[in-house]
Amino acid sequence: MSGTVKLCTMDELPERGARGFDPGQQGRDTVFVVRREGSVYAYRDICPHLGNTTLPWRKDAYLDGKGETIVCAAHGAHFEITTGLCTSGPCLGESLVRVPLWVSEDGEVLATLEANNNRDENP
């Protein structure tokens, strides 16, 4: 799937929270969005340590208990919310793949997806 898609509205994203989405209708979340301090950040739902491993241990569980970092449940890696950079764990120094994202004037959260945003291998 390529193009621009609506993922949700800002009202549907809790502050200091995250949600996964399946814009390609693959039967699993392939993109997730984090809201922090009124800004939103989107990434592919793939750990850079092993390119076929998704991050959460359950639906929408992308953040640590305090909502301060993104966590890979399989490897224990921690990533900065604003950059996707791994700050601890087996992929230290690597980054999550960012998905271009913006918010429309009426609060819709829109993502620009390329074909490789929904595949399991790293680009």
From TrEMBL:
PROSITE patterns named among the record's database cross-references: RIESKE (PS51296)
Source taxonomy: Bacteria, Pseudomonadati, Pseudomonadota, Gammaproteobacteria, Oceanospirillales
Domain Rieske: 5-111
Keywords: 2Fe-2S, Iron, Iron-sulfur, Metal-binding
Species, as recorded: Amphritea atlantica
Protein name: Rieske (2Fe-2S) protein
One Pfam family here: Rieske
